[in-house]
């Protein structure tokens, strides 16, 4: 069943990209929703197959639901450009809440020392500094989204570093897979920043952004299997 769903996710994602590269449309949005919804179903089946991991699975499902909501808002931004800023903010908030939810995935296994947790915060802070410091050199303009971009970049970096660090310390494969998923998420958002704030709406960027994004969601969902 998981293999079948994986194939459906792949097919739906390909159709989405095909439609999106032609032009932003409700048809493309529908297939984007279907792709993320299939990943949620994929996660539900994993939780059903591994009931001992239900607590972690529910966290992932909630995070994915907020990701689905964020998906809708960010595509509506391109379909209805007049209300672009509103949809961008709503997309940011949705994904931000989802990443906050993911922090709960690590709380039971966070055996890091105070120094290690402090380093995780510090690394996330450095990433935020780099994001802001490279705005002009990268010809970006965050404008009215600078504050939410800063908060979002910190939380995303924090979850990424935390998952990888715990994965390395505990040698638990689930956290490492989750961490790799978050790295793909980070790459996806770096590309997205070029599209949104650098006005570089090129087909290869749109494709790369979505491929990294949907792969990230798939890995995050799959991490439950190895818990």
TrEMBL record:
It is found in: Membrane. It is a multi-pass membrane protein. One of its GO terms (molecular function) is hydrolase activity. One of its GO terms (cellular component) is membrane. Its main location: membrane. InterPro entries: TMEM86B-like (IPR012506). The chain crosses the membrane at residues 6-22, 29-50, 56-74, 86-108, 114-133, 145-167, 173-192, 204-226. Keywords: Membrane, Transmembrane, Transmembrane helix. PANTHER family: GH04784P (PTHR31885). Belongs to the TMEM86 family. This is Lysoplasmalogenase. The lineage of its organism: Bacteria, Pseudomonadati, Bacteroidota, Flavobacteriia, Flavobacteriales.
């Amino acid at each position: 069943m998981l293999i079948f769903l994986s194939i459906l996710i792949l097919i739906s994602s390909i159709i989405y990209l095909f439609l999106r590269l032609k032009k932003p449309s409700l048809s493309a949005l529908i297939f984007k929703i279907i792709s993320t919804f299939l990943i949620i179903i994929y996660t539900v089946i994993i939780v059903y197959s591994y009931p001992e991991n239900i607590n972690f699975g529910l966290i992932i499902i909630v995070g994915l639901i907020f990701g689905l909501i964020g998906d809708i808002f960010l595509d509506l931004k391109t379909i209805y450009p007049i209300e672009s800023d509103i949809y961008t903010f709503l997309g940011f908030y949705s994904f931000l809440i989802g990443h906050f939810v993911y922090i709960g995935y690590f709380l039971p296994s966070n055996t890091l020392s105070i120094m290690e947790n402090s380093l995780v915060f510090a690394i996330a802070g450095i990433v935020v500094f780099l994001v802001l410091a490279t705005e002009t050199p990268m010809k970006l303009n965050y404008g009215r989204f600078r504050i939410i971009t800063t908060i979002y970049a910190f939380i995303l970096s924090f979850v990424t570093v935390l998952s990888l660090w715990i994965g390395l310390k505990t040698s638990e494969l689930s956290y490492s897979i989750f961490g790799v998923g978050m790295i793909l998420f980070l790459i996806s958002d770096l590309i997205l920043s070029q599209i949104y704030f650098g006005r570089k709406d090129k087909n290869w960027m749109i494709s790369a952004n979505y491929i990294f994004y949907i792969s990230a969601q798939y890995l995050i969902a799959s991490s439950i299997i190895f818990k």
